[in-house]
Every structure is written in structure tokens, then in C-alpha cells.
Amino acid sequence: MKIFSFIQPLILIIITVALTACNKSPQYSKISGPTMGTQFSVTYQSDSIDSEKVKQQIQAELNDINQLMSTYIADSEINRFNSLDNNQCFKFSDKTWQVLLAANDVYHQTNGAFDITLGPLISRWGFNAEEYQQKVPSSEEISQLLSQVGTDKLKFNFAQQCIQKSAPNISINLSAIAKGYAVDQISNLLSDLGISNYLVDIGGESKSLGVNPTGATWRIAIEKPIDLQRQQAVTVSLNNTSIATSGDYRNYFVANGKRFSHTIDPATGFPITHNLASISVIFPSNMYADAYATAMTVMGSKRALAFAQQQQIPVFIITRDGQKLSTQSNQWFDKYISQ
To answer: Between 6 and which of 26, 149, 231, 250 could a Cys-Cys bridge form, CB atoms 3.0 to 4.6 Å apart?
Structure first.
């Protein structure tokens, strides 16, 4: 058995391309570092801005989100909820509650394709911090784990901003939506500071406003889903919106010659097996873009495209047939493509 783990940012390469020239070059600053098990970078116009203050505020915000939502921090808010063994209605902070409401919304929109209660399955399949057990789970074991899964097993009390478990072993994992929320929060922070030109990226989830250092609209390249290589599939121009990409090729393992994706289908408890290799979603809220990208990866290309058409969500899909890659996008995505 071979186990492959790629922790590097997933799909997107951030690129800037000069489309116009400026007589006077504005000053831009870049902040980067580790966060949420991946890397972040923030590029912003810093004329007349205290860059050290910006850096401190960004880091404080990221630390706060991590402390609230990480399953890797023992005393995080999410882990304190997960450790409950009674039917107490656990009251959440405003930030975590906002993410939970969005997760619940996308769960119902996608008929369960997006589910934040997959923790037991994620751990068993070996895509979490826990050590992978050296065999593929049996159907019987998966059936037992599925009894612990389902956002519908979380009882939301909207008036009290709290959630009650329907069973003590239900747990929450926000890894498929928290990075998108963090991108939105950092973007809001920059806007509140009066910064009108910036690009925020966390682990390949990105949001931009205004123009890059050359005075051109920010351009973002979507990678081809090729192992150990970085090749562009398409480039998009984004202003005051965001993009998130989900793919199956940088986090997987191979057992008995069969490849298992890191994306688990909540309906079956098993990793997806269809030919959708990558999907990119453009949406004003990166939190929603992040969740939609995960849900549509679960759906597969046909269902994902139908859902995107129904919701008028811009999507770019890459499918794999052996070594051959094919792409398709809808009319809402096409208007963002750069030539």
C-alpha cells in the first residue's frame, strides 16, 4: 500500500499579468505564512497604510478563526462541542455560528452532498490527523459509521444560537468551509481599513478586489489536475468576487492498486469514484464557494453542472478519462475567462 499526502495549496496558482501601464507605480505589500494546515498570502495596496498593523490584524483574525474551528486544536470551540456526551444545547460564538448556518444552508441546497458531520468517516479513511488503519473499511463498518453522520442529526436552535446533538457521537468538521470563511473575513478586514485593491488566498481559495500592482484586474489560473505537476488549465479575471476549487489529485491514497479520493460521498460513506477531477466555483462569498465546490465534487460532473445551471453559479469542470483530461464550463463562468 502507498499513502500519498500533499499538504501544499490545492488547485490555484495566483498570477499577475500586465494589461495596462501606470505612470506612477502604487506601493503593494505581501503577507504570507502558515494557517489552518495550509498557507495564506495577502497582497494589497499599502500606500499610506501601516503595514505592520495590517499584518497584526490579519494574523489575529486567522488565529481566532483557527482557535474556534480547527479540529487539530484540542480546546477549540468545535472540539468542545464534539466532546459533549450529553444533549446540552451548545452555544456557539458569532463567527462559528455564521459558518454553521451557511453549512446547514448548503447541506439542504445540495440534498446532503455537503455535510459537516463526516468526521468519523474522514478519520477512518485516513484523511485526518489520526493514523490510517492499514486496510480499506468493510461495508459493514461504513454502515455503522454512517449512523453517526448527517447534518440533519444536529438540532439547530436559531433563537438561542446553539446546537444540540441527537446522539453523543455526532461531531462537526468545518475543514471544507472554514478556509473560505477566513478568506471572506480577511477581505472584509482589508476593506474596513480602506484598502480597495487586494488579493487574499488561503490554501487555493481566493478573493480579490480592485487591481493588481500593474493596474490590471487580478488574474487567477486554475491548475490542471496532474500529479506532481503545475500546469494551467484556464485563467480568470476577478474583481470583487471569489473562487474556490476542489479536486481529487493532491490528497489520496492507493490500496491494492485502487485509488481512493479524499472526498467522501455522504450518501455511501465511501470516497467518490466518478471521473470529476476538479471543479472551480466563482461566487461572491468564498465561504459558499468553498462549500459548493466540495458538494459539486461529490455530485460528479453531470449533477454538478445541472445544479450550477439551476442556481446560476459559475463553474469550470475538469473530468478525467484515463490520462485524458476534458473541460467544460457554463455561460456564467465563461465571462470571467481571460484570453
So the answer is: 250
Domains of the chain (ranges; CATH) run 1-339 (3.10.520.10)
- Which candidate, 243, 237, 175, places its Cα nearest to that of 210? 237
Contact residues for 25 (Cβ-Cβ < 8 A; gap 6+): 213
Maximum distance among all alpha carbons in the chain?
A: 68
User: Where are any strands of DSSP class E within the chain?
Assistant: 2-5, 12-15, 28-35, 38-45, 89-91, 154-157, 162-165, 198-202, 205-209, 218-223, 232-238, 241-247, 251-255, 258-261, 276-283, 315-321, 324-329
pLDDT tens-place string over residues 145-180: 999 899 999 999 999 999 999 988 899 999 999 999
Cell of 328: 467544460
Task: Give the residue from 6, 10, 46, 8 showing the smallest Cα distance to 213.
Answer: 46
pTM: 0.89
Instruction: Give the number of residues written for the chain.
Output: 339
Strands 258-261 and 276-283, by their bridges, are unpaired
DSSP structural state of residue 69:
H
- Identify the H or E element spanning 31: strand 28-35
